[in-house]
């Protein structure tokens, strides 16, 4: 009699406990939408997922392939509109403020205060993650776009020194070509063309000119001779690129540099992360330096996560991810894999390789040397960015289009998009 009674009593209790623990467990998950699908990006995302896992929260991956997040942003918007917003999303640049203004983002003020973010982050980063005094995003790493990678073995074999100015670049490129190596890697993917172009604009001008050029309301600057020179250099550099220029994923281009098929490559330092994941080490198999004319500048893109507010059902877990992602230990580990540098002023430079150290130290000099990447969403809104990139791509592909026509077209688009905004 006794055992069966206890069975009757215990069984429902056990079921209830089981049910509640299942429920609790079901809540311990975060849906994370991002565009990190290359090998190194995957590994870097896993570093964040592992940290979360140690707190018993599962990172449910919703990665959308496509360099620079072209596809991911489309998926994110459509998921949001159809009521299936992820808990966490990679969102970069001014979009953070726009989305916060719409009330879509969870405020992270408590996490920020408890972890001293206002003092820990670089001032530029601290400004970037706030809207109307509230913290609405967690920054994970700073990428440097104006990076020139070179193949050390080939440079050593040919006795070449990495170029510090464009005249040296031409000489090095010529020697590489004569030795049967493609001097400069390039893909014709529009965002990769734009990544090179914006670096050339900075090389021809300064962070303040760059900043104004890509901001609304300054369309006249598109006629500036510094833009003409950047466009002309973009076209002239084609003589050193593969012929034809294939539309290759950036990971594929990284493999070309690794194998020695190409000698140099201008790309954001996520390329360093990818080369490392292939087993190559900076300063051994490949070198990294600022693009000619940009040594004192930092053309940056900050990878950032936002937490979608929704019904606040995942708030505890979302706050945990924010706290972990910005913590010194996770910052050091994640950025080492990703190729970027910590967003923190207290980061340990002694743990960094030469490429990261130069990036972090340059960024640390402050806003006067910093230029926000247009292509990687830090400078303009999505509409203007896409319009500029489409025109640059046309100019790059069709040698018959004069620089002046591209300047005129972009200026007109910038004016039209700017006006539309002010009429709203
Ligand atoms: C950038 C992003 C980087 C890297 C790169 C290539 O926009 O900030 O984290 O993933 O695209 O996809």
Mean pLDDT: 93
The span between the termini is: 77 Å
Name the CATH class of the largest domain. Answer: Alpha Beta
What proportion strand? Answer: 5-15%
Share of helical residues: 40-55%
Q: Any idea how many domains?
A: 2
Which stretches of 5+ consecutive residues score pLDDT under 50? 1-26, 420-424
Alpha plus pi helix count: 19
Shape: globular
Pfam family, one: SBP_bac_1
Protein name: Probable sugar-binding periplasmic protein
InterPro entries: Bact_solute-bd_prot1 (IPR050490), SBP (IPR006059)
Signal peptide: 1-26
Key descriptive features of the protein:
single chain; 424 residues; alpha/beta; D-Maltodextrin-Binding Protein, domain 2; 2 domains; 6-stranded mixed β-sheet; 4-stranded mixed β-sheet; 12 strands; 14% strand; globular; disordered N terminus; disordered C terminus; binds beta-D-galactopyranose
Quick rundown:
The protein has 424 residues and is α/β, with parallel strands linked by helices. 51% of the residues lie in helices and 14% in strands.
How would you describe the overall organization of this protein?
Helices cover 51% and strands 14% of the residues. Residues 1-26 and 420-424 have low confidence and may be disordered. It is α/β, with parallel strands linked by helices. Strands 1, 2, 3, 6, 11 and 12 form a six-stranded mixed β-sheet that branches. It is globular. Beta-D-galactopyranose binds next to β11. This is Probable sugar-binding periplasmic protein. Belongs to the bacterial solute-binding protein 1 family.
């Amino acid at each position: 009699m006794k055992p069966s009674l206890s069975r009757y009593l215990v069984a429902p209790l056990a079921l209830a406990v089981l049910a509640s623990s299942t429920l609790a467990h079901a809540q311990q998950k975060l849906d994370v939408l991002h565009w990190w699908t290359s090998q190194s990006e995957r590994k870097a995302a896993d570093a964040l997922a592992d940290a979360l896992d140690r707190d018993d929260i599962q990172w449910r991956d919703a990665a959308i392939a496509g360099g620079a997040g072209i596809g991911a942003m489309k998926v994110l918007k459509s998921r949001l509109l159809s009521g299936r917003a992820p808990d966490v999303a990679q969102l970069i640049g001014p979009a953070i403020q726009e989305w916060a203004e719409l009330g879509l983002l969870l405020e992270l003020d408590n996490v920020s205060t408890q972890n001293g973010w206002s003092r820990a982050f670089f001032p530029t980063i601290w400004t970037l993650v706030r809207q109307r005094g509230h913290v609405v995003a967690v920054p994970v790493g700073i990428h440097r776009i104006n990076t020139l990678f070179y193949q050390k073995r080939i440079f050593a074999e040919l006795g070449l020194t990495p170029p510090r100015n464009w005249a040296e670049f031409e000489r090095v490129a010529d020697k590489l070509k004569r030795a049967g190596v493609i001097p400069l890697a390039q893909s014709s993917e529009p965002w990769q063309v734009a990544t090179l172009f914006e670096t050339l604009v900075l090389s021809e001008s300064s962070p303040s000119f760059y900043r104004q050029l890509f901001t609304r309301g300054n369309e006249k600057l598109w006629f500036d001779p510094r833009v003409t020179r950047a466009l002309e250099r973009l076209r002239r550099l084609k003589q050193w690129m593969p012929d034809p220029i294939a539309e290759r994923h950036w990971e594929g281009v990284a493999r070309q540099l690794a194998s020695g098929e190409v000698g140099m490559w201008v790309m954001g330092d996520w390329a360093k992360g990818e080369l490392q994941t292939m087993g190559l080490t900076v300063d051994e198999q490949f070198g990294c330096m600022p693009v000619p004319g940009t040594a004192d500048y930092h053309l940056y893109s900050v990878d950032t996560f936002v937490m979608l507010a929704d019904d606040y059902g995942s708030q505890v877990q979302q706050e945990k991810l924010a706290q972990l992602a910005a913590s010194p230990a996770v910052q050091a580990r994640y950025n080492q894999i990703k190729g970027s540098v910590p967003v923190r002023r207290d980061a340990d430079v002694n743990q960094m390789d030469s490429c990261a150290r130069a990036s972090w130290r340059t960024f640390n000099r402050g806003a006067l040397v910093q230029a926000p990447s247009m292509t990687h969403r830090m400078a303009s809104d999505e509409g203007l960015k896409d319009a500029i990139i489409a025109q640059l791509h046309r100019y790059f592909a069709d040698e018959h289009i004069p620089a002046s026509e591209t300047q005129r077209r972009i200026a007109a688009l910038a004016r039209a998009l700017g006006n539309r905004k002010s009429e709203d």
